[in-house]
TrEMBL record, chains A, B:
Residues 266-435 form the MmgE/PrpD C-terminal domain. This is 2-methylcitrate dehydratase PrpD. GO terms for molecular function: lyase activity. SUPFAM superfamilies: 2-methylcitrate dehydratase PrpD (SSF103378). Belongs to the PrpD family. InterPro entries: MmgE/PrpD_sf (IPR036148), MmgE/PrpD_sf_1 (IPR042183), MmgE/PrpD_sf_2 (IPR042188), MmgE_PrpD (IPR005656), MmgE_PrpD_C (IPR045337), MmgE_PrpD_N (IPR045336). Residues 5-243 form the MmgE/PrpD N-terminal domain. Pfam families: MmgE_PrpD_C (PF19305), MmgE_PrpD_N (PF03972). Transmembrane segments: none annotated. It comes from Desulfofundulus thermosubterraneus DSM 16057.
Length: 468, 468
C-alpha cells in the first residue's frame, strides 16, 4: 500500500538524520520560495486573493507575507501559495515537471507558524513535502501533464505530507491525509489558452487543500487508503500511463528529492538560460564590451527556438521570452536579473544593435540531447576577428550545475527588498540561511508585522535563535 | 462558448420569470437540504470539520447550521455542505447522478447570508445552481462517473453559478468563475473501498470551491473561458465520452432542471423505496396487520437485489440496505422513516417473523425497464388466502411520482427537530415554505443562534417578511 509506505517515510524523517547537503537544499528552497512570494505578493492575482481572504477573516495563525498581517492557517497557505507562483522564478523539478515549492512550502510555513514550530521542524516538513510531491509527479509524468497542472495536482500530496509531518500525525492519520489530498487534487491546463490567473490559483489551492486534509486527519476524518494505486484512485483517473514504482523506489534513501531541484537565477524563460549562462561567462572571462561585438551565433535545441526565437519583443514580458534580447542584455550589462527587464532596456539602442547581430541556429546534435540536457553553444566574433566560444549542457541552477548560496541570496534580495525593504529582507535571509537554529518560525516572521519594524531595529533583531 | 451561454442564462434568470412549479421545487429542495444538514451536523464527519473551521476562525458572515454560530462564508459553505451529505437522505437527479443540493445549496446559503440576500434571491441562486450542476453532470455521465464523484466535480460548477448569481457578477466574471470552478473540481470514488468520510468532504469542497471561484471573479481574478469544451478542459480531462449539447439544449427554457429532482422520503437505500411504497399503499388501503400476513413476494430489478437482498441485517445501518427489513418495517409500522431504524426494531420478533415471510424475485420484465424506471411488484397473501398486489414504476419522490409538500415537511421535522428543537424547526419550515417573502435570509437563520431562542419566543418570531 503506497500511502502506508509514504506515511512510514513521512513519520521517520528527522532533522538529525538529514545530510548537510539535504538541509542546505531545503534551506535554499525555502529562501528561493520566499523571494518569489515576496515579489509575487505585489502582483494583481495576489492582491485579488488578499482581498478575498481579508473579507473572510480568521484567527491570527500565520503570516500573509504580502502585508505581514496574521491570518488563518488555511487562508495563509492559499494566499502565499498563489503569490509564490506569479513571478515565474520559482524552483522546478525537471523529471516531475513540478514546482514543488509553490505548493509544499506555503503549506509547511502556515502550519509551522500556527504550531510555533522550530526551523528544524520546518526543514523536515519541506524535505518530506518535496519528496512526496516529486515522487507522485514522477509516477504520472508525462501523460498526466497533458490535462493536469502537476504543481496543483501532485503538489497537493506534498502539501498534505508537509502539514501532516508538522502536525505530528500518526501513520493512520497520514494515510487519511494523503487520501483526502488526492481526492481534492485538481488543476487543468485549460487556463493557458487565455493566460488566465488560474495558473497561480493551482499551487495556492494545493497548499490549502493539503493543509485541510492534514487538519481533518488530526480530527479523525478518514480518507481512502489506496488513493494512489486504487482502481478508482488518482493515478488511474488522471494518467493514461503511470509508473507506481517511482513512488517507492529508494524511498527513504539518500539523496532526497529536494536535492534534485533546479533554481532559476535569471528572470527570463528557462530556455534562454543556457545561452545566457555561456554569454555571461564569455563576457566575464574576456572582458567583452558591446562595441567589440560583430556577430553572435547561438546554437541550441529546437524547443528553445520554438519558444524564444523572437528578435522583436514588443513588451517587457515578451522580452523574457526573447533569446536575442536576453543574450544582448547579458552582453551589455553582465546580468539577466529581474531589475534588468525594464522599458528602458527594451528601447535601448545598444541592446537593439546587439540583438540584430544575434543569429539562432537549431543544432541537431544538441537537439538530440534534449530534454535530458538543455544545451547551448554561443560563438562571439569581435570586430577584430577574434572568436570566443563556450558551451553548457545544463542551465545554471540545475542540480548538475548548481548555483551558490550567494547567488540565491542575491536573487532573494532582488525579489524581496522592494516589497519588504532591505533591512527586513536581510534579517529574513540571514535567518533562513541559519534556519536550523531558529527556535520559533512564527517569531521569525514577526519581522514582517506592520508595526514590528521599529521594534526590530531598536532592539537587537528580535529573532530567537539557538546559542551557537 | 459554453461558459458564455451559461453565464447568459445565470445573468438572465429573475424570480419574477420563474413559474410557480419551479419556485415550489426550489423551495422544497431547500427545505429538504436543510433537514439533511440539520441531522448530518450531529454526525462524526461533521463534528470533525466543525472543529477545524472553529480553529481557523473568521468573520461572522454565515451560519454554521450545526451550532447556530456565525462563521466565514467559505467555512460555512464547507462545513454545511459536508453535514448535508451524511444522512444519505438528500435529493438526487437520476440522469446526472448528482446530489445537486449538497453542493449548490450550502454555497448559495452562505453567500446569501453574507450579502443579506432575500428569499427570492436565494431561490434564483438555487435554480441556476441546480441548472448548471445538473447540465454539466448530464454532459459527462456516465463515463465520468467511473472515477469521479459527480456531486463533488460537477457540483462545483453549480456552486459557482449560485454564488456568482447572488454576488451579481457580470458576464465576464461569471465566465471566470466557471473557469476557476472547473479547474478546482475534484472528488474520486476511491474512498468507497474504505467507506471513508471523503464522500462527505466532496460536496462541502464543491460548495466552498465554487464560492471561492465567484469571490475571486468579483475581484477580477481571471479563469479559463472554455473550461468545459476546451482541448484541456474539464470534459476531455475527466470523461472518455461526453455530450456537450446537453449543457445548452433548451437552456433557459422551462421546465428548469430543479424540477427533475428526486426526493427521498424513506430513510433507507433508494432501491428499497419502490417495494416500500407499494407495501405502504397496500397496508393503508386494506388495513393489513402483521398477524394477517402469510407470505410477501417482492418482484423487482436486478440491481435492487444485488444491493438489498439481505435477510439478516446485523446493524441498523445494514437494515437500511435490507429489502426484507424495510418491507417488514413498512408492514408493521406503516412507516419507513429515520426514527423507525432503531436497535429495538432490529431485534423485534414481529419484524423478524415478517422478514422470514419475504421472498425476493428478480423479474426479467421489470429489470428490462431499469434504470429509466425503478419498478417493483409486491404481492401479499394473508392467512385467510386473500392476495393483495400492487406495482410502482417510480419510487415516490421521483418527478413522475412526486411527494407532497406535507410529506417533505414531515421528513424535515424528523431530521431537524432533534438537533434544533421542535420550535425552531417549525419556524424554519414555515419560513422556507414562504421563502419568496423572506426579506433577509441572514435574519431568518438568527433563529439558530445559541442565544436567540429566548428572544424569538418572547417576541413574535423575529423573522422579517414581506406584507402579504
Amino acid at each position: 500500500m503506497l500511502s502506508h509506505r509514504l506515511a512510514d517515510f513521512i513519520g521517520q524523517i528527522q532533522y538529525d538524520m538529514l545530510p548537510a547537503a539535504t538541509v542546505h537544499m531545503a534551506r535554499m528552497a525555502f529562501l528561493d520560495w520566499l523571494g518569489s512570494a515576496a515579489a509575487g505578493g505585489l502582483q494583481a492575482p495576489a492582491k485579488k486573493i488578499q482581498a478575498v481572504v481579508k473579507q473572510q477573516g480568521g484567527s491570527p495563525q500565520a503570516t500573509l507575507l504580502a502585508t505581514g498581517e496574521k491570518i488563518s492557517c488555511l487562508n495563509a497557505a492559499l494566499a502565499n501559495g498563489i503569490a509564490s507562483h506569479i513571478m515565474e522564478l520559482d524552483d522546478v523539478h525537471r523529471a516531475a515537471i513540478i514546482h514543488a515549492g509553490a505548493a509544499v512550502i506555503p503549506a509547511a510555513l502556515a502550519v509551522a507558524e500556527m504550531i510555533r514550530a522550530s526551523g528544524r521542524q520546518l526543514l523536515e516538513a519541506i524535505v518530506v513535502g518535496y519528496e512526496v510531491a516529486i515522487r507522485v509527479g514522477e509516477a504520472v509524468t508525462p501523460s498526466h501533464y497533458y490535462f493536469w497542472h502537476t504543481t496543483g495536482t501532485c503538489g497537493t500530496f506534498g502539501a498534505a505530507a508537509a502539514a501532516g509531518k508538522l502536525l505530528g500525525l500518526n501513520k493512520e492519520q497520514l494515510v487519511w491525509a494523503l487520501g483526502n489530498a488526492g481526492t481534492q487534487a485538481a488543476g487543468l491546463w485549460e487556463f493557458l489558452v487565455d493566460g488566465a490567473m488560474s495558473k497561480h490559483l493551482h499551487p495556492g489551492k494545493a497548499a490549502q487543500n493539503g493543509v485541510l486534509a492534514a487538519l481533518l486527519a488530526r480530527e479523525g476524518f478518514t480518507g481512502a487508503m489506496r488513493i494512489l494505486e486504487g482502481e478508482r484512485g488518482f493515478c488511474r483517473a488522471t494518467a493514461p500511463r503511470f509508473d507506481l514504482s517511482k513512488i517507492t523506489a529508494n524511498l527513504g534513501k539518500q539523496p532526497y528529492k529536494v536535492e534534485e531541484n533546479s533554481f532559476k537565477i535569471h528572470a527570463s524563460c528557462r530556455h534562454t538560460h543556457p545561452a545566457v549562462d555561456v554569454t555571461l561567462e564569455l563576457v566575464a572571462r574576456h572582458g567583452l564590451k558591446p562595441a567589440d561585438v560583430a556577430t553572435i551565433i547561438v546554437r541550441t535545441y529546437r524547443t528553445a527556438l520554438d519558444i524564444t526565437a523572437n528578435h522583436q519583443p514588443a513588451t517587457v514580458y515578451a522580452a523574457k521570452f526573447s533569446l536575442p534580447f536576453c543574450v544582448a542584455l547579458a552582453l551589455q550589462t553582465g546580468r539577466c536579473g529581474l531589475e534588468d527587464f525594464t522599458p528602458e532596456k527594451l528601447s535601448d539602442p545598444v541592446i537593439h544593435d546587439l540583438m540584430s547581430r544575434v543569429s539562432l541556429v537549431m543544432d541537431e546534435e544538441l537537439d538530440a540531447l534534449h530534454p535530458a540536457r538543455w544545451p547551448a553553444i554561443v560563438e562571439i566574433e569581435t570586430h577584430s576577428g577574434q572568436v570566443y566560444q563556450g558551451r553548457t549542457d545544463f542551465p545554471r541552477g540545475d542540480p548538475e550545475n548548481p548555483v551558490t548560496a550567494e547567488e540565491l541570496v542575491t536573487k532573494f534580495h532582488a525579489l524581496a527588498a522592494g516589497p519588504w525593504g532591505e533591512q527586513r529582507s536581510r534579517v529574513l535571509a540571514q535567518a533562513v540561511l541559519d534556519l536550523e537554529n531558529v527556535v520559533d518560525v512564527a517569531d521569525l516572521f514577526q519581522v514582517l508585522s506592520p508595526n514590528h519594524y521599529g521594534r526590530v531595529w531598536h532592539s537587537s533583531c528580535g529573532i530567537t535563535q539557538h546559542e551557537r
